[in-house]
């Protein structure tokens, strides 16, 4: 009798649970439909390519390559056009400077639909924060990117670059092309670890440093795969998959490392002797700056905030420069004449010195123009997203209501033929001061613009110049025509088949 009653109430309970799940699912579906309707209505004034009711533009993008497809749409709709990723996620994809200015000169929040994927790893650091807390953090962290703080990093970056270039000497002797992307990634992560924690992969105590290094590299790849796999978008489903569990394990390694380094540094700051040691070091690292940061009322960053900001730097600061350096070297291989001119300029600036100092960087004007031209054609961050906090009106009178989603397609903007004549041609003179003055200030956006621009851009430009100058001094770069890179927009701009180049060593004494 009792068993029968129990099984009856259990089956009733399961019916109730099923009913509840269906009701919640139904409500969620209705919410998504209403949102779709809102987004579609907001964008109906903007013509665009035909869209599939279920897949939106996702299939077309997958079949023909996201970047080429979007560039062809940019030629057809040179201001903006709707872009649907599946049935419920619709953006106005903008690619014209006045349109970009209307949105990016304001401080609208990031589009949570996409940036929330980052939370498990980098927490609520500068990249994803909004409102007064973002403003407070941005103010506290800005001094960390001051010229004087960045100055000593030139030596740190050179050291990591030389380690990579030494390795390339051996590879160059094999007289075969090889994929430079991996080595560049290893080098930028090593130098960023040194600038953030004071120690790179080699110095952190063998297993701890290298497992962190591996975890960060793993996380970047897993995150890219998650974003491009529709089935992984729901958190609940994702954490149940082997992919999701691997992501969680890598997050744990990264967080444990960051927490431990913070704990150790805090403990060291309590100890007078250690404190003196830190002060007598040749430079402060980002962690020192973060630990010392306080607002006018003396309020410091909490431990969770510290971890989020360190993890954000590690995420934002190495994949981006890896992409920038690799595509730059590809552009040099593709354009030997510009490669030669850059090398000559570096030799002229350094004279008989064999190391780079921060003051040299400002004198490398041709190299800087070539870096900017490679950022134009191959922007390391190809697309960024916002959600409007208030309505926006564009220059042609069209407008969008609050809540609309915006995608700034940096890759598309930089190849918009209405903005850049002969957009596919590599021409560094586009960045001569006369030509820059004549151009719209929102035409070139590798670091985004406005209040939410890249806080690390000066660091990134220094790193780009140091690494590329040293590389050009030691090697000549040439294409492997059988393995040309295919750009793909992951979180950063990568190449589907790696970045295979031939390297010819310029002989002893060419760089060091
Ligand atoms: C070539 C290298 C780099 C490029 C092209 C680049 C590009 C960008 C872009 C486009 C944004 C805006 C992102 C968005 O709106 O979603 C951004 C934001 C950011 N970047 Fe960079 N970045 C680079 C290097 C770095 C480095 C080296 C660091 C730090 C060490 C860094 C730290 C950040 C942070 C913290 C933000 C968020 C800023 C905020 O919202 O206040 N970036 N970056």
UniProtKB/TrEMBL annotation:
Source organism of the structure: Catagonus wagneri (Chacoan peccary)
Swiss-Prot/TrEMBL cofactor(s): heme
Keyword annotations: Endoplasmic reticulum, Heme, Iron, Membrane, Metal-binding, Monooxygenase, NADP, Oxidoreductase, Transmembrane, Transmembrane helix
Gene, per the UniProt record: CYP4B1
Keyword Lipoprotein: no
CDD domains hit by this protein: CYP4B-like
Protein name per the record: Cytochrome P450 family 4 subfamily B member 1
Binding site for heme: 454
Record has Amino-acid biosynthesis as a keyword: no
